[in-house]
Amino acid sequence: MGQYKFVDTGPADVDPNSQSITEGIIFGSFDSGKQGWWLVDRQAPSPSEKTITESVPYTQGIFDLSMLGNDRFFNNRDVTFQLKSVGHQYEERKYIENNLKGQLMPLGIQSIFDTHEKGFHWIGKCKSVTVSDSAKNLDLTATVVFDCFPFAIGNEPEGNDVWDDVYFPKWICQTVEYSVAGRKDIALFNIGDTSVEVKIIVTGEVSISGAFGELSLRSGVYTDTDLILECGENEFNVSGNGKIEFVFYKEVMV
Which domain of life is it from (predicted)? Predict the structure, then answer.
């Protein structure tokens, strides 16, 4: 044993704020990573369903009328993040806490970006910010709860082929803009988990027909039409002379 020499190293002196933060959230001007908050936990339990049921005498069970077509409908959901800011003295901790609440609570409904959900974002507003202060550990732990739309929404419209923005596990290559000279059949694919609305951009005069009915459109931008994309393949027929583009975003249950 004489060849070994033991040394008492003691505690390591490492500044945690010098380490790289790779996980976080962005909401308005608040970027948790850039402001020194470590994301230590996230919770996004599935939303509750909006149920419509009828109990009819002398029949077994109930009649569930909650679905329309192939879609179930959900209430908003709570998405909760736990953040930690470390290595601060008392006065600095109080400033950081107040600044966090001031950046999150006044804002209305808007996009919430979470590094965990690559290619998607939430839509919602901050519901509460609860902060615990540890004088012993010189840190703050914040629990931030957002009231969110039940589905996460794609960051880019379908048909986007900018490779840096593509999240391949939830992506399909498809055409969403067509030149029309006469009549042709087309198909649009909704690879999300619920039906979505479509913005239609037309140049010239184009008609489109399908299971929803028919639209005759002149040059312009159209929203709030009867054309809704159900999950999966949606087949249409377009006719006329001009161009037609479909802008829509997938919505997924994560």
Answer: Bacteria
136: three-class secondary structure by DSSP: coil
Is 163-252 in CATH node 3.30.70?
no
* SS3 category, 82: strand
Which bin fits 240, alpha (ψ -120 to 50), beta or left (φ > 0)? left
Name the residue ranges covered by the structural domains of the chain.
25-150, 163-252
Query: Taking the model in full, what pTM does it have?
Result: 0.86
pLDDT at residue 197 is higher than 90 = yes
3-state secondary structure 162-204: CHHHCCHHHCCCCCCEEEEEEEEEEEEEECCCCCEECEEEEEE
For 45-79, give the DSSP string: PPPPB---EE--TTSSS-EE---BTTB--B--EEE
**Tokens 């910010």 sit at which residue?**
129
For the segment 109-149, what is each residue's pLDDT rounded down to a tens digit?
999 999 998 889 999 999 999 999 999 999 999 999 999 99
Q: Is the backbone of residue 201 left (phi > 0), alpha (psi -120 to 50) or beta?
A: beta
DSSP structural state of residue 17: G
Other beta carbons within 10 Å of 178: 16
Pick the range with the lowest mean pLDDT from 35-39, 145-149, 162-166, 201-205: 162-166
Domain covering 25-150: architecture: Beta Barrel (2.40)
